[in-house]
Each structure stands twice: as C-alpha cells, then as structure tokens.
Amino acid sequence: MHTFHFMKKKFSIFIFVLSALGALAQEMSPRYQQERNFNNQQLEIQQIPLTPQLEADIQAQIARKAVTTTLITEPKGETLDYAMTFYYYAGQYVGLYDDYDWKVKLVFGEDGKTVYFPPQLVPGYMQGYAKGTIDGDLITVESGQYVYNYNNTSKLYLIVFTADANGNMSLVDKMTYSLKEDLIATKSTECYYGIYQYGTNGSDGTLASYSCAHSFALVSGESALPDEDAVIEKYRLSCYDRWRDGEMSYVVNVAIKNDLIWISGLAPDAQDSYIIGNFDGTTATFESCQLIDGNESYYLGVTGANITSSDETNGDKYSVPQDMKFTLTRDADGVFRMPDKTALIENYYTHPNYLYDAIKNVVLTPYDGDVPAVPAAPREVTLTRDDVMGDSFKFILPTEDIDGNYINPEKLYYRLYIDDKLYTFSKSQYLRLKQDMTDVPYNFYDNYDFSDNYENGYKLFYFYETDWQTADLQSVYVVDGETNVSTKTRVYADPEAGIKDVLNKNESTGHCYDLQGRRITSPCSGLYIQDGKLKLNK
C-alpha cells in the first residue's frame, strides 16, 4: 500500500502559492526528490539583482542571437503532447512552487534536428516557442532567445543562468536536456530559465521570474469514449469535494453496452472526460489511474482510495492498495453509490502519488433533464482592492432557481455590468482568454485570472478597470434556446457610496443590506441597514 500526498490544485498563481509553499517541498516523496536532484534552498531568493556588468553581458548575448528579430509562434513540424513538470518562481509576491503534468505541446522540426519548447517554460511570460537543437540523446536551448513582445514597447528574452544561495547570478550560453525514449529532462538542475525585459530605450532591464528542473513526459492515448451504439443516460452526480470544502452537484453521462459502462465527470475538474469499466447489472468496477485529458491545464488520472481516517483539522487521509479498483453499485431505483469510507482521487497522470483533488460520498441519481428556469442571483459578492495582487471579485453562483430547485451548472453563466453597461472580458486584457466573453460559464477558469471555485464554493476573477462606480453581477441560465436572467447583485467601487445610497432609500421594503450596500438574506444579523436605517442585531 502507499499513501497519497495531497497537493491543492492551482487555480491562479496569485491565489494559492502564498499558503501552499511550505507544504509542497515537504510532501515530495524521497524517491521523487532524489530523482529530481533539486536543491530547494537555491531558489528561495526573492529577486535576482542585475549588476551593470551582468546586464551588459545579457544584452551582448541577446545581440548575438539570430532569432531575436522573430517571435516563433507557429513552428513547423510534428506536434506531440507532453506532460511538463517543473519548479517556478514568479516574483517576491508569489514565491516558489513546483507544478506537475502541465498540458504542453512540443514541436519536432522536419529536419530531425530541431525541437521547439512551448511558451509555458516560464508561465505567463512567454508568447513564443524556444528553439532547441537535437544532437543524439542531447537537446540544447540557447540563451537570449526572443519570446515576448510587450505592447510593442519592450521585448522579453529567455535567459539561461546559474545562481548561488545568495542570488549571485552567472550567465551561461545554453540549457541542456537529456532525451531518453519518452522523457526529456534538464541535465543540470542548477541551470535556470529567466525572463529578461529589455526596454526599447535600453534602460529598464529586469529579471524577476524564473523556472528550472523541467521534465517532459510523452502522453499517448486519449480519455475513454463510449461506443457509438451505447445507450447514454443523464445522471446528477453529488459528492463532497475536498479542495472546494463543500458539496458539489453537476450532470454527467452514463453509457452502458452489454457488460461495459462509461461514466463522465468522475473527475470534477474534467467533467466531459469518461472512464470505462465493467458492469454486471448491479456493480460497476473500474481500473484506477485512467487518463483524463479533459482538464484545461493538466493531465489527470482517477484513482480509487480507502479513507483511513478523518478529522476536522487535517481532513481525510487515504491509502491505495496495489492494483486498486473502485466500484459503484446501482440499487433498485437506478441510483449509483460508492461504498462508505472510499474516495475518488484526482491525481497527476504521470505523478500518481500527487493529488489534484479528492471527492467522497459519490452518488449518481437519474436526471430527468433541463427545463427553463429563472436562476437565483449571485450572492456574497465581495470586491477586494489590492494594489499588489490586483482587484478581484469573489462570489457564490447558486446552482438553483429562484424557488430553490436544482439547475444544471453546465448551462449556467454570469455577467458583469459596470456602471449599468454590460462588460466584455477582452482577450487583449485577459491574456489567457481565447475569445472575448460577456457570459462566463459556471465552470470556467484559466488558472490565472478566473477561478471556477476559489474556496468553499466561491468563484473569483481579477478586475483591471479603475474608473468606475458600480458593478453588478447577474446569473444567466440558457436551456433549449431560452435565456433567463436573475436580478442583479450590486457592489460599489467606494463602499461608503453604497452605504449612503441605501441609507437614502425612503421606501419601506424590509430588505436588509450590509455596510457595502449589498442586499443580504434575512434574518439580518450584526450591523446592517434596513429601511434606510442603521441597525444592530446581536
């Protein structure tokens, strides 16, 4: 038997890292720590200082590279899927973390001597690919390559360097990888990729983010898909989600053909992906560690686990016997359930000892289908102003209609209105969006600006406008071409303006508002506003 290491999933690097840093290094297995051969202390420096001489050396190195005039965004060749593992430092406000099984694509040139590494080498700081040269079982990536054009005002370059524990940096010419069958890995864990910003005026060079210890595991195959003639039925899956620390419910597909069964959504973070099992009419049995490729950013697996203990402070602990299988049993009413004291683990696919999430109390109930309904309004909407991290909205988007009935989150969206005008989330401002959006899907996240579930069921997104007075969030539910919207929930850029607005209301409605002017659900408690008067209910 082996015990899982639990690692919280990464939604936005500005959210999770500050609380998770200490746990990440400690939870690494000894085998994996030795395999990576990585000195964690070496990356605990906050920002690498650039001396005038070092900056001159970097700029001289950049000037020697023929690729500096071209940003490589569409390399030619064979594109293959890889799971990338690496360490990353994003600046003094985010710090160091390690990440597993990022979905990336490497492009191998037609000449057999060239490979192009993806923009995720230093996440968030690269637009273009980095060119590597293949020589036998070695790959080299030269330092000084042009990887980002920042608003046509400055260019970013990929720099290779070493650094001691005090942050003293030494520039080197290249990064070297070993190429062994289906695995590509850096030969020296003491070499780092850094991003250097070199302004057009030549005076604003900075280096504040870097990564190292990359490995790329080739991923072959896809998630299971039902046979075309399998009968597919809708079910509502309910469970307790460990990361979100609360109950979840969403609609999944169950397909059955003879003694085979396919179920989607057993990985909450890749709800469109299926796993396949055997079904005898009563019990469905599944092999663990099946590939889940439907997640936006990571390759995942689904593994059955036994819950060995539980407590309020540390949560559940899990164990997985060798060759673990897991089961779901269907009763006379057609309801599938997992056994007590068992769980489903979302693990990283090529690093199965590391958890992405875990769910328990899994129940699948036959679902009659979606019907048009007026959705409940967003609630507990909070604006956080932060000059360092950026402003953000945090809120709960209920998966129910105004009468409290369940609605399908796959057909639920939210809209933002700024000063009573519908707001467009633009891909020019939100760089990880593939297209502009006004209606944001319930389950949408980009691991950067948008969180589908920030904590305890909350959604969160960052907001970059500064000149505004009011913001309204609205739920949108679309079924069979019919669109229904909720009432709007308002937040003020200046909380005092919200208080004044509510205090000036003369009508007697009995509604309660908090001190930011947001309507709250009765019974009212604490300090609140009702009928234009400030009240206290102990």
Largest sheet: 8 strands, antiparallel, barrel
Share of residues in helices: under 10%
Q: Largest sheet, order of strands side by side?
A: 15-16-17-18-19-23-24-26
Computed structural class: mainly beta
Shape: globular
Number of strands: 39
Specify Rg, calculated over alpha carbons: 26 Å
Rounded to the nearest angstrom, the distance between the terminal CA atoms is 52 Å
Strand content: over 45%
Pick out the low-confidence regions: 1-45
How large is the count of helical segments? 4
Mean pLDDT: 82
Question: How does this model look, in words?
Answer:
The chain is mostly beta strands and 538 residues long. Helices cover 8% and strands 46% of the residues. The chain is built from 4 helices and 39 strands. The strands form 5 sheets. An 8-stranded antiparallel β-barrel has the order 15-16-17-18-19-23-24-26. An 8-stranded antiparallel beta barrel has the order 3-4-5-6-7-11-12-14. The longest helix has 14 residues, at 13-26. The chain is globular and about 70 Å long. It starts with a strand and ends with a strand.
